[in-house]
Structure formats: C-alpha cells, structure tokens
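Hello Y.,

Per our agreement to keep a running log of every chain we model this quarter, I'm adding this entry. I've kept the format consistent with earlier entries: sequence first, then predicted structure.
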Amino acid sequence: MMNGLDENMPICQYMDLDYLLRLLGTRSYCVKAKELFPDKRESSLPLKSIFRLQPIEPGSYKGSDSTSSEDSLKKYREYKESGAFLTACWTEREGESALMWENFTTKMGVCIKSTIHNFIASFENDDYEIYCGRMSYNGYNAEQDIMESLFSKEKAYCEEKEIRFYFMRKDDTDLSKKVNIPVNPSVLISEIILSPNIETKAREVLSRFIKQTYKIEVKSSKIEV
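Predicted structure for the entry above:
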C-alpha cells in the first residue's frame, strides 16, 4: 500500500458490459500490461520528455538531469521496461461521473464497486505481489525513482482520481502481456451500476439477470441523458 491508503477505501471501476459478463461467467479478472492501454499517452512513460537523452560520443548518452550517463541509462531502461507491468486502474471518485462513463465505457457500460481490501482478497491464487497506490498528478521528471514514476500521471488526468494496482509475478518465467486471474466475484463486487446510456428495458432485463444469476446488487445510473 502506497501513499498511506486505507485498505477499506471504496473504489470503482468503469468497464463495458461484455467485460463484466466475462468476469462473472469465467470467475476471472483480466489484467493487461500497461503498454496495451489504448491511450498511448498513458500506456508508456514519456521517456523523451523525461530524459531528453542526447548523444555525446558513440555508444554513450547524457541526460537532462544531474545524474551520470550510466545512471541515466539504467533508469531509462527501468522506465521503458515498466510498460510490461500488469496493471489495473480504479477510481476513488465518490458517486457517478459522466466523465468516467464517457471515457471508459461504450453505450453498454457498467460501474463496479469494491474496496481495496476486497479487490485484493477476491483473488483465488497467490501468484502475484500486488502494489497499490494513489496516483499523483504532478507529471514526470528524471529525479523520480521507478516506483514514483509508476504512480505519476500528467495533470490533465487529475479528474480520474485514480487508484492503481500493479501485479508483479512471483514466477518471472511467464511474460504474458494479458492474464486472467481467478477471482470470487461475490467478494470482488459489492454493487453494479448500469450506464445511463442503456435503454430502460435493457436495464431491467440486465438487472434481473445479474441479480438472479450472480446474487450481486444492481442499480441503475442516477445520471439522466
């Protein structure tokens, strides 16, 4: 746990309905490498703007900060390799957010609610070390260590109020960029909210199906569209 987070903090994740149904049906939670995120500004650190590496002689470089060339290149490699880290993004925003519905779901979207503790406790294997922290929105700089950079974003993202999880494999022989980790959905999800963009009749059918099949509380969005 980073940044003094409370493990009982409520968190939410916005996703498309098909992702939720796959999670419930397979009892597995999909985690992807950060470099697979569709937003390229988010999928990898802006290495050129952080380091501004410039050649000084064949085979060597200098950074924009005060560190040595060797230290800069070591840090550069660490930052670049972090794109392969398995990552899950949640939000601590209380209440619904039209911004989150728009940016992270299609018309058939849902928001699932949990807590930091329940999210981690829902996993049914012990194959990963999980690091959790609140994102800082002060941007990046070459003075940051790798852990600080992993929990940093540009100011433009501050409305997300993101809580991020990194899954570090205990067995480093598996280099898959997408994994499905077995979970107990009833532990993971305390409540599901259906998108305001889903038509009324469809919301009724979905709500009834999920409640009857998975015994999870389902509510309709309070946002009017």
